[in-house]
Design goal:
- The chain is an alpha+beta fold and about 675 residues long.
- The chain contains 23 helices and 22 strands.
- The strands form four sheets. A seven-stranded mixed sheet has the order 10-22-21-20-11-18-19, sandwiched between helices. Strands 2-1-3-9-4-7 form a six-stranded antiparallel sheet, with no helix packed on it. A six-stranded antiparallel sheet has the order 12-17-16-15-14-13.
- β13 and β14 form a beta hairpin.
Length: about 675
């Protein structure tokens, strides 16, 4: 979905682990990590005789080893390394030129081709010094560099896919009173399965019998075991501990929570953010700088009267050392690591740009119910205003309507009806009034269970006592008369105070937004020492409040449950859906928090900042390295006796890439 502000998702076809600045790595003609390793090992073995037969190495090492035709043997071995070891780069060169996407593969491909062709010409009579050993070692270094690079990116991307592979393959299905084992892929919605102590939950479902604690840490990042009983939702992949559970299957296959998470993570890794697009452009520019720099280096040294072999060596070194590999890896590796770590901690990123822009947030709006408070409202007061009705009758009529709703108010009323053994009567014409309440017909009576906003809208005045209450107040109308009201109390979540304080320390303003009355909003806001509150706000008004703040120049993050907050989540600069549980596809949010822990919101913002900083550090390192390395490779320090060979250039380029990879891995320490 395209957000109403400026969030657009640009999907890219290539796989997350192949996401590089110029597309070069998707052009490896299907070469995978093990293929690079195999080519490296074989080429290293063949490089040994190449080094032994090279006259320059013999001079350096102080030995002599010659035999008739040795130069042809050297040429054949080197040609094998060029064709076999250089194949991924030559294929990449061909693909890039064909696609008019000149990049890193073009640089490497040209460098090794020039070195090989010139050396072969020397073997067959051209005067000068061959480049065989430099070309061979250069290809070896490039192969091992690519191997480690691809391994680290793929490792980061695949940690979640491993979770899916860890799902059980069989389940105990309950049919006609007997239990038998079937393949998980045979399960269908509404099947009933048994999960024994110590087993993994095979699919998403709802507990219909039994009680146990589940370890969901691999899925949501929540370290404490979670109690599950009749009516609780369970996620496939969670580990059952001490009790047996009978579960009704609610979703299977690709609709499972875990599969949705993996798809979300893969999508997030494919979508390029502004930072990554910047890195792509920089890498492209650097590629042309390297090609131009190589040609200029060759020309300058030739004009200065140096031998062609010397000028050629300088050119090849410039082209190799300035390969923007580190730049190409700077952002994709951070992307892969940050998205997979986040998902394992219960933070699912749908919009990468919004995630990286967490550093810009100046104001965060918290939806109260279910975010800062538990949302599990206890019905703690019933007030009768019409003596024709008793408290139990109010509960009975209200339960007739509320049995059709999943709202926390409905849950509280139904729980109370259960405690009092009241059977909910049938209702007709049920209607949900967004932000106001519910209505329907019970036993021929027009019954409404509504909040203060409905009364205000219809000009109905009630007993003033209700205005003094600090809990949530819900009124019951029969016809047009208010016959009584219910009061509910909500508990503030553990972690809410700490989260608010962390954000305040970071200089981020925080506001409470709620449909509840001013008394409730003020109480919660003061208890958490927040910067302010907005009360009696209807769902459509939440959007307006976000817009108002944006017009004042604020960069706004909105947190909500992703249902009635959808318009505001879409309008906000960063929309965060909280407590979605198994409903992963909160379409309008940029980021989804699986748990309802408010500290996750603070964690998310700080992790977004840390991710962006890591990207910048990597970009600066990669760019800075090239600014220093290119003149050095061109030979500006040659008058002082400092020279870099192509092989040393390749080593330095690989070291630069390794530094970027290690720095990206340090991101794992940034999230608690």
């Amino acid at each position: 979905m395209e957000h109403s502000n400026h969030h657009t998702h640009q999907a890219h076809a290539h796989q997350p682990h192949a996401e590089h600045s110029d597309g070069g790595h998707d052009k490896h003609a299907g070469h995978n990590v093990s293929d690079f390793w195999k080519r490296f090992i074989i080429c290293i073995i063949v490089t040994i005789p190449v080094l032994v037969l090279s006259h320059m190495i013999q001079e350096w090492m102080g030995f002599e080893f010659t035999f008739p035709g040795d130069k042809y043997v050297l040429a054949v071995l080197s040609t094998f390394i060029f064709l076999y070891g250089g194949y991924p780069f030559l294929k990449g060169l061909y693909d890039e030129v064909k696609d008019k996407a000149i990049g890193m593969m073009t640089l490497i491909g040209i460098a090794i081709t020039v070195a090989w062709a010139y050396s072969v010409a020397i073997t067959f009579g051209l005067p000068g010094m061959d480049f065989y050993w430099e070309m061979a070692t250069l290809i070896d270094v490039m192969l091992i560099g690519h191997y480690f690079e691809m391994k680290s990116v793929m490792g980061a991307s695949r940690s979640l896919e491993l979770l899916v592979k860890m799902m059980p393959s069989t389940a105990h299905i309950v049919r006609n009173g007997s239990v038998k084992d079937v393949g998980v892929d045979q399960l269908q919605k509404d099947d009933v399965i048994l999960v024994k102590p110590g087993e993994k939950i095979p699919v998403d479902g709802m507990v219909i019998e039994g009680e146990s604690y589940l370890d969901e840490s691999m899925l949501t990042g929540e370290s404490k075991p979670v109690k599950k009983q009749k009516g609780s939702k369970v996620i496939g992949g969670a580990v059952n501990s001490n009790g047996s559970l009978t579960i009704k299957v609610t979703s299977t296959g690709k609709d499972n929570y875990l599969n949705k998470v993996v798809k979300l993570v893969a999508d997030a890794q494919k979508v390029k953010s502004k930072t990554q697009n910047f890195a792509d452009r920089a890498a492209k520019v650097l590629t042309f700088v390297a090609l131009g720099g190589g040609a200029a280096t060759l020309a300058v040294w030739l004009l200065l009267g140096f031998p062609f072999v010397f000028a050629l060596e300088r050119m090849v070194t410039v082209m190799v050392i300035s390969c923007p590999h580190a730049l190409g890896l700077a952002v994709p590796l951070v992307v892969a690591i940050s998205t997979s770590i986040s998902a394992q901690k219960g933070l699912l990123i749908r919009n990468r740009t919004a995630f990286e822009n967490a550093r810009l947030i100046t104001t965060i709006i918290f939806d109260k119910t279910g975010t800062l408070t538990k949302g599990s409202h206890q019905l703690n007061g019933i007030k009768v205003l019409n003596t024709n009705y008793s408290e139990n009758e109010l509960i009975r009529l209200a339960s007739g309507i509320e049995q059709n709703s999943e709202h926390y108010i409905a849950t509280g009323i139904m729980r109370k009806a259960g405690e009092l053994n009241i059977t909910a009567p049938k209702s007709e014409q049920f209607n949900y009034l967004p932000g106001k309440g519910t209505e329907g017909v019970v036993e021929g009576k027009d019954v409404k269970v509504v909040g203060p906003n409905y009364l205000k809208e219809h000009g109905i005045s009630v007993d003033q006592i209700a205005e003094e209450l600090t809990g949530t107040v819900v009124y019951m109308l029969v016809g047009k008369e208010v016959v009584g009201y219910f009061t509910f109390s909500d508990q503030i979540r553990e972690g809410s105070f700490e989260a608010v304080q962390q954000l305040k320390e970071a200089g981020i303003k925080n506001l409470l937004l709620t449909g509840d009355n001013e008394k409730v909003a003020k109480k919660v806001s003061e208890e958490l020492k927040m910067d302010g509150f907005l009360a009696n706000v209807l769902p459509h008004e939440k959007l307006e409040k976000v817009k108002e703040l944006q017009q004042k120049g604020e960069y706004v993050a909105m947190t909500g449950d992703g249902v009635n907050d959808a318009p505001a989540l879409a309008q906000a600069d960063v929309g965060i859906a909280v407590g979605s549980g198994t409903d992963v596809a909160a379409e309008t949010a940029d980021i989804i928090l699986v748990n309802s822990n408010p500290k996750d919101i603070a964690n998310l913002i700080f992790f977004g900042k840390a991710t962006y900083n890591k990207m910048l550090q990597n970009l600066w390192w990669a760019a800075g390295y090239n600014i220093l390395a290119i003149p050095l490779a061109a030979g500006v320090l040659y008058p002082w006796g400092i020279m870099l060979s192509p092989a040393i250039g390749a080593v330095l380029m690989s070291v630069s890439t390794i530094v970027v990879a290690i720095n990206a891995q340090l991101l794992k320490r940034k999230i608690s």
